[in-house]
Design goal:
62% helix; 215 residues; single chain; mainly alpha; globular; 8 helices
């Protein structure tokens, strides 16, 4: 017949009637993540529900920052007169540097913005710190916690305190509004796994004689 078939709609105008289960699950997870992060950001500002606790949370924030850990480790390395202590401190320094590089790379690739309720008054930030995923503080806390538990002889109460410190650092990132819940959870997992990489690449006088010759 002379009737012509209707032209198909452009692909972008077509409604996806059967979205994938994975897509629905990811969208739901993201919505829950954003909702929970905002509800738990009780120290995000002075006027927040727990605004009076914000100074304490910021002290915890500094305790997990990379600069104090790098400077403290480097100072201990320079002052140490024990070959065994120098080996441990040199590997801790290597772990901290590896952590900084890896977190910066992941943040630069993912480029997830920080929560909208975050107040940008963080201690010593760099360009990638405007991104949220993963939490560098959580990654570092998990890495340092596992490192200390494996390489320092501590009484049980002190070991418990080290683990609690790592957990509190992670929680403080959400309470301050710096990160979403998933940023912190992934950061803790990343730091835990990163320690295994450090152990695998452990630096010793045999594997890296040039480094130990400097000290």
């Amino acid at each position: 017949s002379g009737s012509s078939a209707a032209a198909p709609l452009p692909e972008e105008d077509c409604m996806k009637l059967n979205p994938s289960f994975l897509g629905i699950a990811l969208s739901s997870l993201l919505a829950i993540d954003l909702w929970a992060s905002k509800r738990l950001g009780v120290c995000a500002g002075e006027g927040s529900a727990w605004g009076n606790a914000r100074p304490l949370m910021k002290v915890i924030e500094v305790s997990g920052h990379g600069i104090p850990w790098l400077l403290g480790t480097f100072y201990g390395l320079c002052q140490s007169d024990s070959s065994a202590a120098r080996e441990v401190l040199l590997n801790l320094l290597f772990a901290l540097l590896l952590d900084l590089v890896l977190v910066a790379v992941v943040k630069g690739v993912v480029k997830r913005r920080r929560p909208t309720h975050n107040k940008m008054d963080m201690f010593v930030t760099i360009s990638v710190d405007r991104y949220s995923f993963p939490s560098g503080h959580a990654t570092r806390a998990a890495l340092v916690c596992r490192f200390i538990l494996h390489h320092l002889v501590l009484a049980v109460p002190l070991r418990v305190l080290v683990v609690l410190w790592a957990v509190i650092v992670g929680i403080s990132r959400i309470m301050l509004g710096r990160h979403n819940v998933t940023d912190v959870l992934f950061g803790l997992l990343l730091g835990y796994a990163l320690y295994s990489v450090v152990e695998y690449c452990w630096l010793s006088p045999l594997s890296a004689p040039a480094l130990f010759a400097l000290w």
